[in-house]
Amino acid sequence: MKLSHFALATAACIAAGNACAQSNVTIGGIVDINLAHGSGSIANKSFVGSSGIGASQLRFTGVEDLGGQLRAGFWLDSMLQPDSGAGTPTNTNNQASGGAAALAGSQGLTFNRRSTLSLGGPLGELRLGRDYTPSYWNLPVYDPFGNLGVGSTHTLNGAITGATGVRASNAIAYYYGHAFNAFATGQSLQGLNVGAMAYAGENASNAADAGSGNGASVRVGWTAPAWSVAAATGRTRNVAGDLRQTNLGGAYDFGVVRVMGHLVRDRNGAVTAKGYLLGLTAAVGIHQWRASVSAYETDAPGRPKATKLAVGYVHNLSKRTAVYATGAVIDNEGGAAFGLNQAVTAPNARSRGFDLGVRHSF
After folding, report:
1. Residue 294, SS3?
2. What average pLDDT score do residues 290-315 get?
3. Is 181 left (phi over 0), alpha (psi -120 to 50) or beta?
4. pLDDT score at 5
């Protein structure tokens, strides 16, 4: 359920008179909370976690019709930790220094997921602010778990792509073939869809790292009724070595079963990595099953590699509420030591984990 401009009109008008000019303002979000467990060869961990199948969030969105087929829109989206009520830090400059927080959660509520203002028309959408990089989109779109929870693809969990591997701040972007002011990863229109972004680290011109945090990202795809495919690439400058991200993804919907996959190649300075995911979803009525295998390997000494198998089940209680269970196991080799759900495991050892939870959208 979403609260439209009508339900918010009184409060909005009291707070700021010009808020009443919005033709559509919405408050929405997701609360996803779970019991999570991870086991490793060194240490296990159990905790109350979040975002197992839906990213816990609070968002404010709005669209205004400007006439002449032109529209304006905004999107303010904050990541939540419902187990503690804490917010999540953002990153202000697309560098490690821009994401630091003295104490986790002490920064309060931030619109770290997305904070954008858009202008759009028949020729596409111009979007400014903090948003997902186009070179990230293929990872969640072509992952049965949407890159969420213990089952999410290891091509991101193990990635070497740094601060802009998912989002970038101080960005100017152009989108074509996507629903206006939308979450572009899930709302591509039929036919050609394009996303292109440039972003800035905003360092002083005389600084030793003047160009760090500057970058660009582009994605080009095609969406048909039963299938879709897309390729993307991005590069972020960094004084210690540029970050590069390239991937290709696709999916085919057979009706009950949808299969998908993606290939990735990343580079961080002198280190190169490659990976893949193959997965599927199967839905029958209120039941959904998910499964994937993903792997990620770098050319660092020993060639660390991790391979992950994940399976999950979602039971939809209503359009807005679901319960779920996800399990995963990861095998490390070449000196890799990835643990699931915060477990600690020795190099080349196995780790297991599971999520049991409930998701509610509003």
Report:
1. strand
2. 98
3. left
4. 46
| Angle, CA of 135, 269 and 202, to the nearest 5° | 65
Name the residue type at position 266. D
| Residue 6 pLDDT exceeds 50 | no
Q: What is the pLDDT of residue 96?
A: 87
- Are 61 and 181 contacting, i.e. CB atoms less than 8 angstroms apart? yes
The two tokens of residue 112 are 């770290």
How far apart are alpha carbons 125 and 358 in whole angstroms? Answer: 35
Contacting residues for 162 by C-beta, under 8 A, at least 6 apart: 96, 236, 238, 243, 268
Tokens of 74: 């905004």
Q: How many Å separate Cα 179 from the centre of its chain?
A: 18
> Measured in whole angstroms, how far is the alpha carbon of residue 100 from the centre of its chain?
20
Domains and CATH numbers, the chain: 5-361 (2.40.160.10)
Say if residues 87 and 45 touch (Cβ distance below 8 Å): no
Phi-psi group of 108: left, alpha or beta (phi > 0 → left; psi -120 to 50 → alpha; rest → beta): left
DSSP-based three-state secondary structure for 6: helix
Whole-number Å distance between alpha carbons of 78 and 321 = 20
Q: pTM to 2 decimals? A: 0.91
Residue 98 DSSP one-character state: G
**H or E element: which one contains 154?**
helix 154-157
Q: Evaluate if residue 190 carries a pLDDT over 80.
A: yes
Q: What is the pLDDT of residue 159?
A: 87
The two tokens of residue 334 are 């070449």
